[in-house]
Amino acid sequence: MESALTQLRGISAAVVNPFENADGDKNLAAYLVPSNKTSDKQHDIDEIVQHLNKTLPQYMIPVTFQYLEALPLNQNGKVERSALPKPEQIQVAQKAYEAPSSKAEKVIADAWQSVLDIEQVGIHDHFFDLGGDSIKSLAVVSKVRESGLGINVADLFAYPVLESLAACIQKQVPQASSKIMDLFSLCPDSDKTKLPPDVINAYPISKLQEGMIFHYDSQVSSGSVETKGLYHNVSRISLDISIDIAAFKTALARLVSRHDILRTSFHMQGFSIPLQLVHQKIELPLSYTDLSMFDTKEQQELLDLAYTQALTKRLNVELLPLFSVHVHNLSSQKSEMTWVEHHALLDGWSVEILFKELSELYQAELEQREAQLADTPQYVNFIAAEQEAIANSANTQFWRDYLQDAEFASLPAPDQVSKNKRTSITHSFDEALTNALEQLAKQLKVSLKSVALAAHMHVLKTFTGEEDLITGLSLHGRPELENSSQSLGLFVSVLPFRLKVEQESWQQLIIAVSQGEQKIWQQRHFPLSGILEATNQTALFNYSFNFWILQRLPMIPANT
What we know:
This protein has 17 helices and 13 strands. It has helices at about 1-5, 45-55, 105-115, 135-145, 155-160, 160-170, 190, 205-220, 245-260, 295-310, 350-365, 380-390, 395-400, 430-445, 450-465, 505-520, 530-535, and strands spanning about 10-20, 25-35, 65, 200-205, 230-240, 265, 275-280, 285-290, 325-330, 335-340, 470-475, 490-500, 545.
């Protein structure tokens, strides 16, 4: 912000400081030192704002501007922020609604209205302020590209204000949507003759999948029951209905036919490289037990026993299927579903999508209609993006520069936590605090994730005593293809997020975090294993941050 201000002719120095107005709203104030001390102190404020709008996201635009003869300095020659005068009420007026006029503005506005499900979007609106996020940005990019405009998700993060985004993409070469990968296009020629006859596609295993499979197999083979939950996911879902098992079986079969990843096996050996094989069909792993004849206590004991067995049953990644579902009927109005899958198949968002699709398919079967589900890109497209990122030497250099001179800071594990036992601590925020956090994010024009990540970095600074910190940051790497937000697979990646936590206020820290997220977003397809190799490190962090907004799943049917 300060650098952008000093690039303007007539300004020799600038500092931007957060402040709180009488209503409790947090804003930014700019203090400017003119090059010519005899110039008019109130000149060209509008020009300054227009300049900043071209170079900075909206949340970084100050709302007040004051000219000073000189900035107050401390004995070390640094700006003494506490000595700055209170911001003058030279408020930059909030811009009224202005309709899109150019082709790019209209295309973007239409895309935002469709994806965000809102009626009106103006050129001064902010994507994230309207409810946008990284998943929804994929749909926006896809819709804008359909009009022949050049755009990617990184552009939307860098220019979240519609007017600025339109100006950005008008300068770019129009680009089509990313290419859908042909069958077997990523499979080495030498391996194609080794494939079983029922395989309809084959492609490399992702680096994260490789790691999960290795640790899953090695820890399970150790014989410790405690470790069998690692990358072995079991979900229990209580339903206030009795499942029609025939209709449910049909819905599950249709779900499996829609998504290649549910018909996939993993082979670390036997081919020139580790491969995942997509099979034409699988035997549905569906089982059903009627527990309605037991009382509530006995039902709970049997459900707990089934859950324990599901947790400890080993999955062989070479054998299909790598998921299963068991339906327990409890009464004419209640049942419980147990879903099991190897984590190498699905990330958390994909599990949510899976349950939503299964609900829609089941209800459609009950109502004897076609399910309202769009075709989605298959997981192979993510693998193609990762392979391309690995082959690009510029990505390797980015991480070498980004992590230069970085030091590994470790947090000691609590005494009561053993290395072979996972422990979770749950803390709930009340509604008032949650609303306050959401309001803070809205005021700063950042995502709630950035606010939470800022708190995470502050905690790390408190407990490590360090300012230059690295944490693991979970990002999704879904390809920029139409409907990829509804694809199933393991799209998540954990990348090192580096930040110097030296800001003097929460507002400055949150803004710095948001900028830092944008910096590494374009690297989301480059795997952590490649970063470690490029930097000659064995570890960069022993803690990570994962932010996940849980959605309320539609129960089946919708009227229950």
